[in-house]
Each structure stands twice: as structure tokens, then as C-alpha cells.
Amino acid sequence: MMHRDLVNSLKNGEEKAYLYLLDQYHRRLYAYAMTLVNDHAIAEDIVQNVFLKTWQFRKKLSSEFSIQSFLYRSIYNEFINTYKKDKSVMLLQMKYFESLTEVVESADNNVIQKMIELVSQEMEKLPPRCRQIFSLSKKEGLSNIEIAAYLDITPKAVEKQITKAFHLLRLKLKNKYETILFLVFGLHQKTLE
């Protein structure tokens, strides 16, 4: 279904267009939500809320804008509004999430999926302590001080593990994937060195 036709069908309240939207985007949006929250139930809640709101406010959709961009941006906004409002989010964390959103909004769907899978696979291969701290920082959105208090270690030790994680990811993903690391984690190359 063409983008303009899909948006127009949604605006007209056609259920088959909504089902098509679910079929085409649910799995991808769920994978993206998982990169933000790392919790299956919460990720599913975010995706369901986005689809529900998309249907509720379908008359406001514009055929001038990409439905893919709209959905990914909606996932990000739902995540921020619902799950981040009670937490202080570091600037670095915000840049990470925003950069990831920019990538998934503009990239081809297969590229997005491969990129998310690739980074997730390599994150799983990090040493256990390093992976735990990196996940608490990048996925749970905790500050270094919060992680240090939670794990009963120093903030400096937390920072060291996060730096180590970026270094190992960069080595594993090789030079050709530096762009992926930059885009996914929103960090300048010098930060990774």
C-alpha cells in the first residue's frame, strides 16, 4: 500500500488500513522500544499505546509526512513522556535516545533492524559486569551516581566500565561500523577512544 493511500485510508477510518499498519510496523516498533527500555512488557505497552493513539488521532495524520517517521517518533515520545518523566535524564542519555530516533526515522527498515540486532548482539557479548553497567546506563537511563549507589561502587568505576563497553563495541563492530556506534550512541569518535 502506498504511503499516501495508507494515510488517507487511516483518516477515513478504514480498519484494513489499521490492520496493515499493525502488520507492517508492530515487530519493528517493538524492537525499537526494546532498545529504549529493555523490558518486554513495557516495550509492548509503549507500542500498543502508540498504535491506539495513532488510531484515535488518525484524522490529524498528514500524508505529507512519512508514517514510518511518525511512528518511530511516537514511540520515542511515548517512552519519554511515560517512562522518563520521573527520572532525571542526563544530557548524554537524551542525545543517545534522540540520535537513535533520528536514525530509525530516516533509515530503511531492513537497515534499522540489522543495526539494532547487530549492536544488541555485541552488547550481549560484553563482560557481565561491563554489560550490566552499560545496560543500566544506556537502556535504563540511570546516571553514573545512581548506578554507583545501586551496585555499591564508585562513580569513577562506573565511568570506566561504560568507556570499556564503548571501546569493546568499537573493536567488535570494526571501523566500518563507527558510524553505527556514533548514530546509535550519539557519541563523538574521540569519546570512544
Topology summary:
Blueprint: H1 3-11, H2 15-37, H3 40-56, H4 67-83, H5 91-106, H6 109-124, H7 128-138, H8 144-151, H9 155-173, H10 178-185, H11 189-192
Helix pairs in contact: 1-2, 2-3, 2-4, 2-6, 3-4, 4-5, 5-10, 6-9, 7-9, 8-9
Jot down its keywords:
disordered C terminus, Rna Polymerase Sigma Factor, Chain: A, 193 residues, Arc Repressor Mutant, subunit A, mainly alpha
The major β-sheet equals: none
Instruction: Count up the helices.
Output: 11
Query: What is the CATH third-level topology name of the largest domain?
Result: Arc Repressor Mutant, subunit A
Number of domains: 2
Strand content: under 5%
Low-confidence sequence ranges: 186-193
Average pLDDT: 76
How large is the radius of gyration? Answer: 18 Å
The total of beta strands comes to 0
Give me the secondary-structure category: mainly alpha
Q: Which CATH architecture of the largest domain would you pick? A: Orthogonal Bundle
What is the approximate shape?
elongated
> Can you give the helix content as a percent range?
over 70%
Q: Return the CATH class of the largest domain.
A: Mainly Alpha
Helix-strand pattern? HHHHHHHHHHH
Q: Span between N and C termini?
A: 45 Å
Specify the CATH homologous superfamily of the largest domain. Answer: Winged helix-like DNA-binding domain superfamily/Winged helix DNA-binding domain
Please provide a written account of the structure.
- The chain is mainly alpha-helical and 193 residues long.
- It contains 11 helices and no strands.
- Helix 7 packs across helix 9 and helix 8 (144-151) packs across helix 9 (155-173).
- It is elongated.
- It starts with a helix and ends with a helix.
